Amino acid sequence: MLAKVPAARFKAMNTGSRIPERNHHNRSQCPWVVAAEEEVVGFKKVSMKTFGLLILLILFTFQVTAQVPQGYYNEAIGLTGTELQEALHEIIKDHQVQTYASLYQHFELTDRKPNLSVWDMYSDVPSGTPPYVYYYNSGHECGNYNGEGQCYNREHSWPQSWFGGSILPMHTDLFHIYPTDGYVNNRRANYPFGEVSNATWTSLNGSKVGANTTAGYTGVVFEPIDEYKGDFARSYFYMSVRYYGQDNGWPGSPQTDGSQLKPWALAMMMDWHNQDPVSEKEINRNNEVYNIQGNRNPFIDHPEFVNQIWSDPSHIREPGNKALTAKVYPVPAGDYCYVSLSEPITTYPVVVVYDGLGRKLNTDYGFAEGTITIETGVFARGFYIVNIGLQNQSLFIKILK
Q1: Are 326 and 280 within one domain?
Q2: What is the pLDDT of residues 284-303, one digit of tens each?
Q3: Which residue among 250, 281, 310 closes a domain?
Q4: Are 173 and 167 in contact (CB under 8 A)?
Q5: Which of 314, 240, 301 minimizes the C-alpha distance to 270?
């Protein structure tokens, strides 16, 4: 008999709210795609004991792959802000560039579930049964498609058009490329990641396309499910460090300025990073990509680096490297805190406040004559991080209550 794989035995590493099971794709519709509860296509006939030993061997293989080399981050420890970003860039740059054709083969190691299926973050339902499942070496790579569940391809989570097209090494950098359903990839197009309230389209696993609701941008975005938002955020932080200072000629996007995130996107990605912590899936993937490319994603190994770079007041970005500073008063803050900017600005700022744990707070603020007024009367005692975002500038400051 063919070995059957119960869906409940192979859940994703992350957990989250259950999405109702939907079985829109059966074999008659997609003959080369199998639902999770069906027989696994392409396996030889094996006993359940043999199959169980195979799974244990695979799990053991995941556990013994490369770990962080001793001393890998020595040059970065103790740094913050721009200095930390520059140090990490020096550590992870000049990785071993792969061919585009080799990515499918690499996915078999970097994005493989314990049941040997493709780990597709655009179709996976971590706490339930996915609507469809793909398997490696089973003819599931994309050709033509006209709906979900027909094939998977290579998704550049940081769209290629944002760095100028099929340009190496970005074009094949595995840290931002994932296997995903071809149709969902197509619907995502090159839209920024964002958050959607009223979706114009929703995938079978709950990913959405629609107008962004995050402060600072109102265009069309793609929102992945909550369980994988941290994965994509850490991919973006990697890109901002790996290609720091090497983004000359990058066209950019509504979400990015060269290799750097625009203020609204940075604030949102920091939320995603803090709300969806590093998973075992990401740790295993980081190790496998290291075996292939010879570099690592620092924000998987050291999640604290995110706040140490982008929540530090030394991390200031403005065209022409012109310093933008701010004076904060009173200290400690009372019912209100005032932020006086050193340079005149012509656009209304976007102000986002985080508490000491990195959680975004709802707060009122105003702006007049170069001074931002933030209502702090409801804040508990402690320190807070304020992100002041303009069209092409980003400033982080600390306030004490």
Answers
A1: no
A2: 999 999 999 999 999 999 99
A3: 310
A4: no
A5: 240
Does residue 241 fall inside a structural domain?
Answer: yes
Query: Do residues 299 and 352 both lie within one domain?
Result: no
Q: Number of structural domains, the chain?
A: 2
Are 367 and 269 part of one and the same domain? no
pLDDT score at 354: 79
Question: In whole angstroms, what is the distance from residue 356 CA to residue 328 CA?
Answer: 18
Does pTM surpass 0.90? no
**pLDDT tens across 156-194, in order?**
999 999 999 999 999 999 999 999 999 999 999 999 999
pLDDT tens digit sequence for 305-345 = 998 898 744 444 443 444 567 889 998 999 999 999 887 77
Of all residues in the chain, the percent with pLDDT exceeding 90 is 60
CA dist., res. 264 & res. 163, Å (int): 20
Q: Which residue, 208, 282, 276, is CA-closest to 238? A: 282
* SS percent in the chain: helix, strand, coil, step 5: 30, 20, 50
| Residues 239, 388 share a domain | no
Single out the residue in 280, 310, 340 at which a domain terminates.
Answer: 310
Residues shown for the chain: 401
Q: Does one domain contain both 243 and 358? A: no
Residue with tokens 């303009």: 390
- What secondary structure does DSSP assign to 244-297, as a single string? TT--TT----SSEETTEE-HHHHHHHHHHHHHS---HHHHHHHHHHHHHHS---
Residue given tokens 């290799």 in the structure block: 259
Range of the domain at 54: 7-310
199: exposed, middle or buried (Cβ count in 10 Å: 0-12, 13-18, 19+): middle
Average of per-residue pLDDT values in the chain: 82
